Amino acid sequence: VQLQASGGGLAQAGGSLRLACTASGPTADRYAWGWFRQEPGKEREGVSCIGSNGFTSYRDSVKGRFVVSRDVAKDTVYLQMNSLKPEDTAVYFCAAAGPGVCGFSRAMYDYWGQGTQVTVSS
Fold first, then answer.
1. What's the start-to-end Cα distance of the chain, in Å?
2. Among candidates 1, 29, 34, 20, which has minimal Cα distance to 108?
3. Residue 11 clears pLDDT 90, i.e. is over it
4. What are 45's strand-pairing partners?
5. Using DSSP, how many helices (H) and how many strands (E) does the chain show?
6. Quick check: 105 and 57 in contact, CB under 8 A?
7. Residue 60 pLDDT
8. pLDDT-derived band of residue 28, with 50, 70 and 90 as boundaries?
9. Distances (CA, A) of 75 to 2, 19, 46
10. In Å, how far are 92, 94, 107 from 80, measured between CA atoms?
11. For a FRET experiment, which of 53, 84, 86, 91 has its CA 20 to 30 Å from that of 41?
């Protein structure tokens, strides 16, 4: 499975961006998906995920602001990011794991997309 992430860019605080992660094959509903982010010099951290059963999870700092979803027909998973804050600035990565529940452990994910930069200005 190859993953292609897109949608990053520059936004002002309070603005929105939508990230997309497209898989190379019909996988959207067969895998658990995760969105991670990494700031320079820091560990990559889980942001949100969606299991193969559609169950979603969010880290506390993005609850109520970010929404993860998937479009099975397009083999694409999205991360809608609203009310952006400067502390959301990071490189964002998408990842896919085998079918089942999702989580924020990097070790559970077998496939990773390239990162996409998100920069939020104050």
1. 37
2. 34
3. yes
4. 37
5. 0, 11
6. no
7. 98
8. low
9. 11, 14, 21
10. 12, 13, 24
11. 84
Adjacent-strand bridge partners of 58? 48
Distance CA 81, CA 67 (A): 7
Identity of residue 116: T
Q: 14 by DSSP, 3-state: which?
A: coil
Burial label for 29, CB within 10 Å (0-12, 13-18, 19+), is middle
Please tell me the distance from the alpha carbon of residue 57 to that of residue 51, in angstroms, as a whole number. Answer: 9
Q: Tell me how far apart the alpha carbons of residues 112 and 64 are, in angstroms, rounded to a whole number.
A: 25
Q: For 60, phi and psi rounded to 5 degrees?
A: -55, -40
CA 111/CA 74 separation, integer angstroms = 18
Per-residue pLDDT tens over the stretch 60-113: 999 999 999 999 888 899 999 999 999 999 999 999 998 889 999 999 999 999
